[in-house]
Amino acid sequence: QVQLVESGGGLVQPGGSLRLSCAASGRIFRIAGMGWYRQAPGKQRELVATITSTGVTNYAASVKGRFTISRDNAKNTVYLQMNSLKPEDTAVYHCNAEVHPTSWGGAYPSWGQGTQVTVSS
């Protein structure tokens, strides 16, 4: 069993910044890819950014240049630094991790409950 717990969401004015964190715990041998996704009211969940275990990153076009994803493998934690926030960034942000619970098995996707980010004046 793996738990992902997000933190750092909140209300911020347009142009402001927030830093999200997501810590994984439980039965973890290693974590492969990690990422952030978001879901706005009435919309489908969409990819925001991903990062591999070696630090290769990928971003949605809408956040490239404004958001930065990073991870601390020793802490099983992924971060999302969000700058120059816009009202359209308002959503529930979920973290995802591809977790290997053992050294011999495959990876399983795990999701956090989400943290609300609201960008409004």
Notes on the structure:
By secondary structure, the chain is mainly β. The protein contains no helices and eleven strands. The strands form two sheets. Strands 2, 4, 5, 6, 9, 10 and 11 form a seven-stranded mixed β-sheet that branches.
List descriptors.
11 strands; elongated; four-stranded antiparallel β-sheet; 121 residues; 56% strand; 0% helix
Give a brief description.
With 121 residues, this protein is mostly beta strands. It has strands at residues 2-7, 10-12, 18-26, 30-39, 46-51, 57-59, 67-72, 77-82, 91-100, 108-111, 115-119.
Question: What is the CA–CA distance across the termini?
Answer: 40 Å
| Rounded mean pLDDT score | 96
Shape: elongated
Helix-strand pattern: EEEEEEEEEEE
Layout of secondary structure:
Elements: E1 2-7, E2 10-12, E3 18-26, E4 30-39, E5 46-51, E6 57-59, E7 67-72, E8 77-82, E9 91-100, E10 108-111, E11 115-119
Parallel strand pairs: 2-11
Antiparallel strand pairs: 1-3, 3-8, 4-5, 4-9, 5-6, 7-8, 9-10, 9-11
